[in-house]
Amino acid sequence: MAVEKYGGYAGKILIVNLTTKKVHVKELSDGFVRTYLGGNGFAARLLYDMIDPRVDAYDPTNAIAFMTGPMQGTTMPTAGKYYVASKSPLTNGYFDSVSGGFIGFLMKYAGYDGIVVTGRADKPVYLYVHGKGEVEIRDASHLWGKMTSETQQAIKEEIGDPFAMVSAIGPAGENLVRYACIITEYRAAGRGGMGAVMGSKKLKAVAVGSDGTQEVKIANWEKYQEFLEWLNEEIKKNPATGKGLPTYGTPILVKSIGVQFGAMGTRNHQFEFDPNFNYENISGEKLNAEYLVKHMACPLCPIGCSKVFKDTKGKWKDAQSEGPEYETLYAFGSMCYIDDLGAIIKADALCDEYGLDTISYGVTLSFLMECYEKGLIDDSFTDGIKLNFGNDDALVNLVEKVALRQGLGDKVAEGSKRLARLIGQGSEQFAIHAKGLEIPGHSARALRGMSLGYATATRGGSHHDPRPTGEYAGASDRTAVEGKAEWVIGTQRFTLLGDSMVICHFLERVLGYTPTEHYVKMINVVTGFDWSFEELIAYCDRIWALERCFNIKAGMRRVDDTIPRRFLTEPIPEGASKGMYTDEATLNKMLDEYYELRGYDKKLGIPKKETLQKLGLADVAEDLEKYIYA
Amino acid sequence: MAVEKYGGYAGKILIVNLTTKKVHVKELSDGFVRTYLGGNGFAARLLYDMIDPRVDAYDPTNAIAFMTGPMQGTTMPTAGKYYVASKSPLTNGYFDSVSGGFIGFLMKYAGYDGIVVTGRADKPVYLYVHGKGEVEIRDASHLWGKMTSETQQAIKEEIGDPFAMVSAIGPAGENLVRYACIITEYRAAGRGGMGAVMGSKKLKAVAVGSDGTQEVKIANWEKYQEFLEWLNEEIKKNPATGKGLPTYGTPILVKSIGVQFGAMGTRNHQFEFDPNFNYENISGEKLNAEYLVKHMACPLCPIGCSKVFKDTKGKWKDAQSEGPEYETLYAFGSMCYIDDLGAIIKADALCDEYGLDTISYGVTLSFLMECYEKGLIDDSFTDGIKLNFGNDDALVNLVEKVALRQGLGDKVAEGSKRLARLIGQGSEQFAIHAKGLEIPGHSARALRGMSLGYATATRGGSHHDPRPTGEYAGASDRTAVEGKAEWVIGTQRFTLLGDSMVICHFLERVLGYTPTEHYVKMINVVTGFDWSFEELIAYCDRIWALERCFNIKAGMRRVDDTIPRRFLTEPIPEGASKGMYTDEATLNKMLDEYYELRGYDKKLGIPKKETLQKLGLADVAEDLEKYIYA
């Protein structure tokens, strides 16, 4: 069993068991890689087979997969990323996150397509994969409690390899904050608590040495070169990837989403445009004019959306961060009603160091601010902190408390779904999450597709399952109900493809918001699969179904495919999207259509037996029969 | 809404939320108490309504219920107990445990039928319920890390009430050992990790003051007196409750089960009678002759099975413990192949102090000893400990390591199911658990009913769901297949009844191994329900179905209704029960019959819609429809 025919692969996955300290190398076959492509596909299949989805995310029998796709190790634009997946402590379901960081390349150079870690170490450890393939489980007791940047630096020094790449957690991951992230260089695998899973395994970091020399084969070199030339040209020509993102990064979105669309959650989505809030104050334009230190880019990325910002004058003078991204400006800014960019930069930098997802942190805080202002919680709940909207001191100072799970921080660490359940008193109406994952800054009310998209996504409230971009651009009418299910499925296929090749979603503007022949070509020139468009679609639907079956075994059903009550019952009160929302009947109508198109049962949202069989998942169908009526 | 017509109740349940620090008093109605009786029934209903069974046991939204039944506060023999239930970190399902301890009485005197705790404190706390009803959430930071006896003593001193009762956890509960117990006086709510759930809530203890004065009404005083007279007389007359248990306690069983039946798991059930093991050395007779310090009894108990034993001469000189019970002699003795009673007494005492369940601890250790001797794990796994059968130093010294989750102890703390999953290499064949709960010292091979009983029990490997006593006594032929499902259901009904009234299972010898008219009378004289026998049975089946529906929502199915592979494939090799076992086909035949009788679907083991409706659980049926096909 080995990958012989195809390009793009090392052909091996490392399986590391921290309980037994045993390391096993799994050889991949031609059949396996053609069926599961890479990244998302590899991880979904391996984790479905390895994990009992009913166990706790923090159970040592949970596993976490660090994966590459066929593009890592090639020169494909935006491939400077890696993919990570596990059962999430926030959603209790299959979860994945893609992050910048050259570590995916180094894995490939070391001869591995990915690393799966299971078990739990009895004391803090880090994993060191040498470039020549050797694997060490090293003591990390001295690193426990350290910040993410310090940890990366210390490990590079320890292993004597300044060019090694290290994916590390901060104190938040160690202390099992449900939305702890993993930091590689300055980039985060942010969402769903992948860092907390590492923490539960006492795994402080994964390091891969820079001394690997295994090359990645390109199946069709000539056509690959042709494709690259075309793609690089298109990226340059496109206004978003060629100008907007390189110049401003994602903060460019504040003014268009917040003002033009009136669709930027504000005061915990009591508004999506609030005439009393000055969106200009947190805009990309202002960031660039007054805070910009320098532009940065992921390795191999011709777009370069990353920026370093610094406050040089205000209350939070000297605060500096890579970021904030648009999502952070939403979560910390409009949601918490804070328009001091210095505070946002400061809190953003702290989140990166302590290892927290800024979206879940900000949205959870915003939820508590509404609870506080409504009198559902009082000062005894908040340790005496006046948790009103606009409290920038709370935003900044609580980061550490959350990461260390101290006082109020210990509560905020649980996320909005759990907090609403415990606070009760009707607060579930405005807990802004789907399946437990806090919803980002793309409106489920102003963009019809996002309501259905969040509801049906494996991960819940992520803008990287459904994609809002096409609806903003008018590629799909954002008010339409008819045909929306098909659109949403298209965007979900698109992100799954990107997460499998492990490339950046920003390419959607060039390659298409939903799968196109471009993607087929991209895969075929590297791997040599000779896939048809139909095979590409079947691949997407296979992996999507696999993720869903994981969630089905974890107990999720159609009843969990929903969005916050607020979005189903309260129209947007002000601004350009005033009056818009998706009511329950409309959501249900779209859901019916969605399941129909996907070949899922409409009552429970479970993939039908024949659907699974058609997708090449007959064994999964058989397994599922033990748990559900087929 | 209040309990007005019926005797036996305070009519109120305390609901304490450690996240919000809010305390709420739930009033019970006549209808509620008649439908849910008490203890097990109250908890099953309240927890079904409060908990999403799909969350982690350590999730702050999990809840733990400390309950009484209608007998607490009366003079009913053996009522000196209380009941505790939660989602278990060991089985991931509904779990309950009954323990000696006068705390149930004090709850009633304080005006509460029970206490449900949800949420999680941000620092260690204990709950103090004053006898006059007031509730305090008190700081327990200074008690964190303390042993169970020291904790109880310290709290009694702190609140200035030497007669208060305190249910406390030790370091094992604090450190989330999956089988951490709760200690009240010297008695344990032992199984399923209820202590770990307390630990996850940072709840060190629940204390109830002795200054309560609320009386418990008896519905029919005259008939109650008559019944009591009769019952006390019968207890005295019965050889087990009148003589065997008072004289020897449960250790009397070693010789009969180990030698006479040849049915006492030995060397991790490689044997159930091993001619090379001297069962005499760990017998009740030897304990009584050489180790007995004194007899003790739970409050109000005319049986008095409890003993204090001390080693006065051997390697473990001065070791002293309340116990060991028979189950501990099995788990530490024959299972770990240790016949030095001093070591067993020492480890037993340590388990009580650190707060560990002796069955799960001993059986897990025994599993690892087999793994070690088979070479599946080596010295790097065991921190250099030679983990051979018979290593009494390991048994004693590891208790602390497990409780503190240090080194090998951190692994042992996970229990055999999870360890087998991580160790692999075929070790799942001999991981001795059902649904993740380690199996006690009553053979699933020599007693046919226990194979079906463990397989179908809500809790898995507990001898307090199915009961072995009747099969030992010949009330049901232990080799029979025919009719065994009915027998098992009868014993499951019996234990559920006992756990609802909250009385001791030892009364089975007097009142019947399966429900009889005696139980009807016992309930009716105290409560005044005027139940018929049919209503009694319907009650039992209602609560059993409710527990099962909790597990169904947690993802369990027929496929989980099983026993260790060893028991299904390897006949007992030696002794009086040589050759006996239940193969898979036989188990399946009994399972089919079991589900048929219970009104559960045979394919998945899910209660049918009409069964739930008939049992008065139409709302549960409706809820379940969102997750399964009815």
List keywords for this structure.
homodimer, 630 residues, alpha+beta, Aldehyde Ferredoxin Oxidoreductase,  A, domain 1, Aldehyde Ferredoxin Oxidoreductase Protein, subunit A, domain 2, Aldehyde Ferredoxin Oxidoreductase Protein, subunit A, domain 3, 3 domains, 6-stranded mixed β-sheet, 26 helices, 13% strand, globular
Concise synopsis of the structure shown:
Chain A is an alpha+beta fold and 630 residues long.
Describe the structure.
The structure is a homodimer of 630-residue chains. Chain A is of the alpha+beta class and 630 residues long. The first copy, chain A, folds into three domains: 12-208, 4-Layer Sandwich (Aldehyde Ferredoxin Oxidoreductase,  A, domain 1); 243-434, Aldehyde Ferredoxin Oxidoreductase Protein, subunit A, domain 2 (Orthogonal Bundle), CATH 1.10.569; 442-629, Aldehyde Ferredoxin Oxidoreductase Protein, subunit A, domain 3, CATH 1.10.599.10. Chain A is built from 26 helices and 17 strands. In chain A, helix 7 (221-237) packs across helix 8 (239-248) and helix 7 (221-237) runs antiparallel to helix 21 (517-527). Chain A starts with 11 loop residues before the first strand and ends in a 6-residue tail after the last helix. Chains A and B meet through helix 15 and helix 16 of A and helix 15 and helix 16 of B.
